[in-house]
Amino acid sequence: MFKYLSIVTILLMLTPSAQSALESVETYFSQDGFDGGGSISGFFKGTDLDGNGQIYAASPFISSILGLPIGNELDYAEVTFNNLDTSLGAQTIIYDKSTADIFDVSNFFFGFAYNIGSGTIGDESNEGISFSPFAPSTNYLLGEAFLGLFIESIAMEDRDNFGTCNGINFCGAVLELAPDSDSESGITTVSQNLSAAIVSVSAPTTLIYLCIFSILILFNRFSRKNCTLSN
User: Fold this and answer.
1) Would 159 be classed as within a structural domain?
2) Residue 15, domain extent
3) Over the stretch 127-156, which tens digit does the pLDDT of each residue have?
4) Rounded to 5 degrees, what are φ and ψ at 180?
5) At what angle do helices 2-12 and 207-230 cross, to 10 degrees?
6) Separation of alpha carbons 98 and 226, rounded Å
7) Is cis: bond before 136, omega within 30 of 0?
8) In a domain, 66, yes or no
9) Nearest 10 degrees: CA dihedral of 203, 205, 210, 212?
10) Is the residue at 225 inside a domain?
11) Is the Cβ–Cβ distance between 30 and 200 less than 8 Å?
């Protein structure tokens, strides 16, 4: 059995890039600190298809506007608005790749970037979330990665103080947007609610550790079988 455990030890010592290539990540996250005691809570599941250590999704529109690559690694995600005083009230935004992936027009303004194992979301400049249906809508913007998409929807006096989550800057925004044919962007901000709180992320479940656990079970069974035959 010790011989097989040595093989598993080698698997655990694989380089981060080799591990990432196998990783399917799912985790819960939340952010509080919004005015009025409001918060958001969410869940996501994604697969690191290119093995670069990040779960990444960005629509063709976001790619064209911000000069970012298109990505389709997010399998499912949802964000729930809790105790936030918006005209649409309590609601949950859902992204489901199985019914409409990042290329679907309904996900025009959707983007997601999470560095696997970072412990939070939005504390690095290449991380962020844009959960943004077509207006009229309530939208969640986090971090710096997709900030350029809605920076003009944030009040002028707050724009320079919005970016990565460092406990000082604002980094989370709940934006209520409505169509406006008179504005250059075609939308207007009905309300905004900002937070500087660090995003809380639960310990992610990753495919690689499930695989290693399965290998351990198989090796254990194989070892027992060999012992039985030798006896």
Assistant:
1) yes
2) 2-219
3) 999 999 999 999 999 999 999 999 999 999
4) -150, 105
5) 170
6) 44
7) yes
8) yes
9) -50
10) no
11) yes
Supply the pTM of this predicted model.
0.80
Structure tokens at 87: 């005209």
**Residue 48 structure tokens:** 């690191």
Query: How many domains does the chain divide into?
Result: 1
Q: What is the pLDDT of residues 53-92, one digit of tens each?
A: 999 999 999 999 999 999 999 999 999 999 998 888 889 9
| pLDDT per position as a tens digit, 177-229 | 999 988 877 899 999 999 999 999 998 676 444 444 444 444 455 455 555 55
pLDDT of residue 188: 93
Domain-located, residue 224 = no
Tokens of 199: 């995003």
Cα within 13 Å of Cα(91), Cβ side: 16
Q: Annotate 96-111 with DSSP letters as a single string.
A: ETTTS-TTSGGGTT-E
Beta strands in 186-231 (DSSP E): 187-195, 200-201, 205-206
Q: How far apart are CA 215 and CA 220, in angstroms?
A: 8
Paired tokens of 141:
């913007």
Helix (H, G, I), strand (E, B) or coil at 181: coil
